[in-house]
Design goal:
Rossmann fold; globular; six-stranded mixed sheet; alpha/beta
Length: about 625
């Protein structure tokens, strides 16, 4: 296998904290590899070190010669003055450069070789490139190609950046959390796209279904060390557990042997100077191994929900519109104790508006929301909260409460709570600005749960949380003695948590579907299959093309056609003039004159057609 990327002896410190140390790995052509680790372990930092946007403290990164690389940053930066289309074309990719060279050659044929530029476009298959760009942007639900990127939301910017990377079709694709800000349809499209792609892939993701279906290898950073698993996500879970059990057994064996060695060290002080130096060195190595902490560094959520009475929330005929857009229409529902509901729908279909209506943060146009007296909301918002970057982690928690009720008369102080949310004592006194994106989300989750809510509303809780934290959160929610209302694009998370689903249809209507997301998705597939069969039985066409988005600009294929038309029209006009001169000269005989007249008529007809097409394209170009 051809090695595309080689990482050798890479070490990176963050202040005095070692993120990863002396790690080695290779990504070879055709491999699709996922990187997972706890938040704060340095996943994004590792990708940045690989791409050269951050510098490691030691080690080397080597790319194969003559390969192209595409990188999707977790927080991409676009140029706000450019339109979506201009941003996508703002690339150093080979095809983009060929297109720019061709356009330059058209504008300045006296300076540049148009034939050479045309041949390069042919070789790269670049004539329909603009169409491909629009197809990928449309799949990611970016439809206004002329909108300035500065007017896009953070999620839209991430999708434009993803489209830009995919369109270049690099040999090596490096993606940092590509499913963040994608809805379920987009994720399934991207999943299929990467499955079929021949690219080599290295990505960070917390989406376990996505990881399982796209990747065939997993790298894990654990305790500053890198481990490799050649298999899918279930294989990783199995082998990771085996590794940890074997490690625990080795430490236990080392501790038993240490007792014997300690006795020898005490009894033979004189011999230690010369005869058994190797045994002394071995003793200290054994002592270091035996002193390793066996406790699993996993988040522990042991916070009890407040008591929830029989009356929860009664929503009656709720409606909400923004101008001519209806996001909710005549919604009625009586929430029951302990139920767990998932919410699915396209971006912009009104999911977040619905959550704000239920909590009373937003007033409906019509209808009522009757909230029970015992209901205590815990609202985890998609946008999170803005922490003071200079504030210490422990101060943020203490500002909410000094002590946290665990139920049954037990309580934690702020420091104990943070320890259970994987903030060790030293990091509790870090300023918030030093935390990773995932650590900030974990701190935010801590501030929501510590208030003992009994009605949890979670709007995209899985964004930026690592897989280990998600597993713990899922277990907590499964046993949560209260109501849960969750919006999430993480299908694995939804499958483990929810009992039924509210489906938003983009017209303000909400359908209550029994079952988790996979059941709902299978239902859609069955319905689609039935519709297809019905069309076949009725003799209707089963395949159709979606209408292409209207555009007032020429595609590259049309630009080339326009250029060729101009040449053809000029040649036909010259031929027409030559024929007319011959016919008027009086030299041709009767038979030749007849042929010239026939040719003149044919040339005139072809010329009319080409002139009409030229006018059509010229109008489009304006």
């Amino acid at each position: 296998m051809i090695p595309y990327l080689q990482v050798e002896g890479l070490t990176r410190l963050w202040g005095e904290t070692v993120l990863f140390e002396n790690i080695f790995f290779t990504i070879s052509k055709g491999q699709k590899v996922a990187l997972i680790a706890q938040n704060g372990a340095g996943k994004t930092t590792l990708l940045n070190c690989i791409m050269g946007t951050d510098l490691p403290d030691s080690g080397t990164v080597t790319f194969a010669n003559n390969i192209t690389t595409g990188y999707l940053n977790q927080l991409p930066k676009l140029k706000p003055g450019l339109s979506v289309m201009e941003e996508v074309f703002n690339s150093s990719g080979e095809i983009i450069q060929a297109i720019k060279a061709y356009e330059t050659a058209i504008q300045h044929p006296e300076k540049y070789n148009l034939q050479e530029a045309t041949e390069q476009m042919d070789r790269l298959g670049a004539w329909d490139y603009e169409v491909r760009i629009k197809q990928i942007l449309s799949k990611l639900k970016i439809t206004d190609f002329e909108q300035p990127t500065g007017q896009l939301s953070g999620g839209q910017q991430k999708r434009v950046a993803l489209a830009k990377v995919l369109i270049d079709e690099p040999d090596l694709l490096i993606l940092d959390e590509p499913t963040n800000h994608l809805d379920l349809d987009m994720i399934e499209w991207l999943e299929e796209y990467l499955q079929k792609s021949n690219c080599t892939l290295f990505m960070v993701t917390h989406d376990r279904y996505f990881l399982d279906r796209v990747c065939n290898e997993i790298l894990e950073i654990d305790n500053k060390t890198l481990y490799r698993y050649k298999g899918n996500y279930p294989y990783f879970l199995e082998k990771r557990q085996e590794r940890k059990e074997q490690h625990a057994a080795e430490i236990d064996k080392a501790r038993n042997l240490l007792r014997t060695e300690q006795e020898w060290m005490r009894r033979m002080p004189k011999a230690r100077g010369s005869k058994a130096k190797y045994r002394i060195d071995s003793f200290y190595a054994l002592k270091e191994k035996a002193s390793q902490n066996l406790s699993q560094e996993e988040m522990d959520i042991n916070i009890k929900a407040s008591r929830l009475g029989k009356k929860v929330i009664n929503a009656h005929n709720l409606s909400k519109s923004y101008g001519n857009i209806t996001v909710l229409k005549n919604f009625s529902y009586k929430f029951a104790r302990f139920e767990k509901i998932g919410i699915v729908g396209d971006n912009g279909s009104g999911k977040t508006t619905f959550l704000n209506l239920i909590t009373g943060a937003l007033k409906p146009d019509n209808g009522t929301v009757d909230i029970g007296e015992t209901v205590k909301f815990g609202y985890y918002r998609q946008e999170g909260i803005r922490f003071d970057p200079s504030a210490k982690v422990i101060d943020i928690v203490q500002d909410i409460a000094e002590y946290i009720d665990l139920g049954n008369g037990n309580q934690w102080d702020a420091s104990q709570l943070l320890s259970h949310f994987l903030f060790p004592y030293e990091s509790q006194h870090f300023q918030v600005e030093k935390l990773s994106g995932g650590e900030k989300r974990r701190l935010y989750l801590c501030t929501v749960l510590m208030q003992n809510p009994n009605f949890l509303i979670l709007d995209e809780p899985t964004n930026d949380l690592d897989i280990m934290t998600l597993n713990v959160l899922e277990n907590y929610l499964q046993n949560f003695k209260g109501c849960v209302l969750v919006v999430s694009h993480d299908r694995y998370f939804m499958d483990k948590i929810v009992d039924h689903i509210f489906v938003f249809d983009n017209k303000g209507r909400v359908k209550d579907f029994p079952g988790n997301y996979s059941v709902y998705r299978n239902h859609l597939d069955v319905e689609a299959h039935k519709a297809k069969q019905n069309k076949k039985e009725n003799g209707e066409k089963t395949q159709y093309e979606k209408p292409k988005p209207k555009t007032n600009k020429l595609t590259f294929k049309e630009k080339r056609e326009l250029e060729q038309l101009e040449k053809s029209i000029e040649e036909l006009e010259n031929e027409k003039l030559e024929i007319e001169e011959k016919m008027n000269s009086g030299i041709p005989g009767h038979e030749e004159l007849h042929k010239l007249a026939e040719r003149h008529n044919n040339v005139k007809n072809v010329l009319d057609e080409k002139e009409f097409r030229w006018l059509e394209l010229s109008e489009k170009e304006k």
